[in-house]
Structure formats: structure tokens, C-alpha cells
Amino acid sequence: MKLFLIGLPGSGKSTLGRELASALKLRVFDTDAEIIAVEGASIEVIFKNSGEDYFRKKEQEILYQLAEENQVLISTGGGTPCFFDNMDYINKKGISIFIDVPVETIHQRLIGQRIHNRPILEGKTDEEVFLFLKQKYEERYPFYSKAIVHIKGSNIKTRDILEELTIKKLV
């Protein structure tokens, strides 16, 4: 079994990924964490020093490597499905799950946690963060909507995902 969590930054992919992997006895990987480990630098530094094109190519390389593993759950970066043929590749290799959290909720999470180590949000006011997230959601939705499973809500729990996977007879 291979599960891929997709969605905007701040949607809860990393947290839900760890919990879901534990419940299903899968190994869990986070593409952003893997890139950081391989590059020996934060995503912010990678973006700053090497640019987004370099980062997206590295992201695809890591995605392809992880997708060769068995019994895994992979939490992807928010933009991963939107570049190259990544979304089609994800669906070919396993079960994609779109964690669809309202932009307002994600905004409150990011502002509430004061997460500023995300290069896409750096230097933005609270209002600019909201508008940015809204724009990214609209741009990325056509890719995210190709997911095999779509879980929508402000407070998605692991049990919600498990229930949907069971209903669709995917686990």
C-alpha cells in the first residue's frame, strides 16, 4: 500500500500522515523533510540559494525515490502535485488523498503558530498570507482535485480518512 497526502501548506498533511501511518502500520515519509536531509539545508535556504526550479526538480526526484518503497505513506509538499507530471505519477503509484482544509482555517493555523520558516510566506502581512493562500488554493485545486480520495473540513481527523478509505474499499 502506498498513500500520498496532498494539500496546501498548513492543511495538516505531516501531522495526519504520522497518525495515519501509525494506524495502518505504514512507514511515513515527508518529502520536505527528505529534501532537507538530502540537501543539508532548510527549504528556505534552498529556495534562496538555488531557486524554485532547483527545489521542484529535487522534490520530484525525492517523490520518485519514495514512491518505489512499499507500505508507505508520503506527505507531499503543497506544490508537489502541481509540477511536472507529479499528480499523474502519484495516482499511478498509489492512493492520493486530498486534505482539503478551508483557506480561512489554514490562515488561522499559520498566523496562530507564527510559522515564518515557510519561504512562500516570508515577509508577508497576515492579510497578504490569506490572499496568497487563497490564490494558491485556486491555482492548485485543478491538480488536487485529481486525488482518488477527497477529505474536506476544518478539523479533519485520522479517523475521517480511515473511514473514507474503508468506504471506498481502499484499505
In short:
This protein is an alpha/beta fold. The protein contains seven helices and five strands, in the order βαβααβαβααβα.
User: How much strand?
Assistant: 5-15%
Mean pLDDT: 93
Please write the string of helix (H) and strand (E) elements.
EHEHHEHEHHEH
Instruction: Tell me, briefly, the overall form.
Output: globular
Q: Please tally the helical runs, counting DSSP H or I stretches of 4 or more residues.
A: 7
Q: Unreliable stretches, pLDDT < 50, 5 or more residues?
A: none
Q: What strand line-up does the widest sheet have?
A: 2-3-1-4-5
Give me the secondary-structure category: alpha/beta
The first-to-last residue Cα distance is 8 Å
Number of strands: 5
The oligomeric status of these chains comes to single chain
What kind of sheet is the major sheet?
5 strands, parallel
The portion of residues assigned to helices is 40-55%
Integer-rounded radius of gyration: 15 Å
